[in-house]
Write a structure and sequence with these properties.
The complex is a heterodimer. By secondary structure, chain A is mostly beta strands. Chain A contains no helices and 11 strands. In chain A, strands 2, 4, 5, 9, 10 and 11 form a 6-stranded mixed β-sheet that branches. In chain A, strand 7 and strand 8 form a beta hairpin. Chain B is mainly beta. Chain B is globular, with a radius of gyration of 13 Å. Helix content of chain B is about 0%, strand content about 55%. Classes of the chains: A mainly beta, B mainly beta. At the A-B interface, strand 5 and strand 10 of A face strand 4, strand 5, strand 9 and strand 10 of B.
Amino acid sequence: QQQVKQSPQSLIVQKGGISIINCAYENTAFDYFPWYQQFPGKGPALLIAIRPDVSEKKEGRFTISFNKSAKQFSLHIMDSQPGDSATYFCAARVTGTASKLTFGTGTRLQVTL
Amino acid sequence: KAGVTQTPRYLIKTRGQQVTLSCSPISGHRSVSWYQQTPGQGLQFLFEYFSETQRNKGNFPGRFSGRQFSNSRSEMNVSTLELGDSALYLCASSLEGGGQSTQYFGPGTRLTVL
């Protein structure tokens, strides 16, 4: 059972454009939602995270929008740069289950010149 | 501070063999989690260790096991390897685990089973 659904699978955006990646979850017990960025040959690195009591969180060019009633959250990358080209994973965790993260399937982002 | 280190980085084994992977967490981190990453199944949680005790376990067969030492270093063992075990095995450490404790991932060990 896939508990976190992520779309699109791949995304091509022009430099300077906005990249948008969406995730939907099923388990209402999830209460921590991080986004990870992974470059080839590297492990995932935390980008930004949000809790469900906040509808939006912004850090630099990265913004998470969270819709608790719809059980959806999204990552927006403003002014996308070629260096942002990577695979992005959304994830979710239930606080009581310690460190177990449930990941989405990933979105491969390519930012073109 | 040094990041999470994993050894070896690459490993080639044949079916039926066993393998041990090692993870050294960030200094001061007590929680170590292991994940399997494959193109087909994505990132899947294997297990988490905290203070030398397994605190959480994913849906993997008993061939997958792990342990944690008193210095928080962790090892993961896979016995009777199958072709489907070929994957990138990632280790992540965090201070205490759970809550909003950030998990920091290592570069992974790429296991190929022939």
